[in-house]
Amino acid sequence: MARLRRFIRDNAVPLALLSPAVLVILLVVLLPLIFSFYTSFSNYRLIRPDSLWDFVAFRNYARVLGDGEFWSALWRTVLFLTFALNLEMLLGLGLALLVNRITWGQRTMRTIMMFPMMFSPILVGFQFKYMFNDTIGVVNNALQSLGLAQEAIPFLVDRWLAFASILFAEIWMSTAIFAILILAGLFAMPRDPVEAAKVDGCNNWQVFRHITLPFLMPFIYIAMTIRSLDVARAYDIVDVMTGGGPAGRTELLWTLIARTAYDDARMGRANAMAYVSILLSIFFTWFFFRKLMAARKHLGAF
Amino acid sequence: MAEVSLNNVVKRYGAVDVVHGINLDIAHNEFVVLVGPSGCGKSTTLRMIAGLEEISDGEIAIGERVVNHLAPRQRNISMVFQNYALYPHMSVRENLGFSLKIAGRPQDEIARAAQDAARILGLEPYLDRTPGELSGGQRQRVAMGRAIVRRPDVFLFDEPLSNLDAKLRTQMRIEIKKLHAQVGTTIVYVTHDQVEAMTLADRIVIMKDGHIVQTGTPLEVFERPVNTFVATFIGSPPMNLIDGVVDAGAVRLSDGSALPLPTRTGPIRDGQRVTYGFRADNLMPEGHGPAETGPVATIELPITLAEPLGAESLILTEIAGVEVQGKMLTPRPTRPGEVLRFQLALDHCHLFDADTGVRLGQ
After folding, report:
1. Choosing a second label site near A177 at 20 to 30 A (CA), which of A274, B14, B70, B96?
2. Topologically, how does it sit relative to the membrane (chain A) (predicted)?
3. Which ipTM was obtained for this model?
4. Which of residues 196 through 235 in chain A touch B, CB cutoff 8 A?
């Protein structure tokens, strides 16, 4: 006790200066976290506030884990993540390699490349919703005018076409993040090992495969980590384009959680879902971070 | 078997010529060193031989083949880079075997070649480390090992020792020379360090501003520099140069004193403006140098400063207001201002045209 008192006396000023920050974090982050964690064990419904004290232990979790709708949303989210991350990575890599070759007007090109990132995801959602619309959409219009399709293609109605359309919007918006990060890697890349590899007998593809790509891997994993968190909470584009429908066919985790929480007003159950799905985000972050560490290990000498 | 020949090779960046039509023939197994101050085009020349830079004009041939339009990988060369350029994500073993792996050789052959290279260069204990875990000297050795594994026609070295400390540099210099004796391949070596050039080369090529100034064995360029640039660039300390005018079989200096013409001067007219050159080794105090067999001029000069190096001292003094260096063998302590009688060996003095810097006489 005496030691604690002395510690406080010796560090009075730093402690006083830190206390507002600590207080804000406690109020804004920790308290809601504890509260939401508690509600996931209660039968809390928004329309019946007194149900907050209705403690049901693991019933929410048991129901969520036994719910087919939840599992299909989870599975669809993982699928969405896998496609989005890999396609964005490949496209971003290609884009970065191309832009890196430009000698004239590269700055302008880099700026233009970032345009999609400047739009609000909701606007991107609306934009693609209208483009893919089956009666007034420009895509259907173009396909039919060119004679490539005889009748309207229900882009946002068919299960897989709707999934692909959302994926397309997501990729359109976010490929630039991969491209920018990989481009930064290419700028930082030393020229010597590339030249050494050329002298050692590599053709351009082999140089890329054995030298450039290993050097870029940490940058790719950083982009993957950031994007996996981003995509795992994809909500706005989906909500705008299909609203998770038709009939829940494009429901991702967060649209399902939002529906359960606000439309069905089952706050306790929604929170239980959220805590389960956070595990997914944690898994992806951990996975990419481990990859990142492994890839970075040897790059100190570059 | 691989000779390397450069025929009127030009490198142009836009409108600027960096290398102006170089001609050079390198014999099989010859160790040629390109040396010159930074920006003289020596590295560019090497990179053109390697194929890392395009040739703007002229022709480069390795062996019988003109390689102008061949990619580096088709030229059968190895290159050691200044920054080692190791592959950081591969172990030493993988670094050594990389070129053979790319060439699609069988596993056991790759393993054996890597092992052999490691043995020659004393890298066996480090085979499973990555470059990040090696010291500068070890990395340098891996870079060299990677070069020999390929059994190339030509080795190219681009200032390989300039990132090492002085002691390690001397040591690696010897290893490179041993390596050449051992594997006996044509070597083109670029450096800005004239000591490296002198000690390693069979033949030195001195470059300046994109031109070859002089080509010759180390002794030739040391004893017969074609102009004042070579005279001051090769040898340490640089050659002493004093301006004067030829006057009745002697060179009259600015303060009115005269130095006798060097013995090897050809016919020369009075009134010609010249630069008189001699090395510190040929200006020695009486009794502190080898007995001179040739003609000498004796001059009395006051000492400004002495730099004792142990076996010899460098003596700083002045002739006609120009600071010059002499050398004192089996040195004794000296005082600043002390007047010594120096012997100037006329057999080893040089005369250059004062305007063009070009050597006069043979």
Report:
1. A274
2. Multi-pass membrane protein
3. 0.80
4. 196-203, 206, 210-211, 214-215
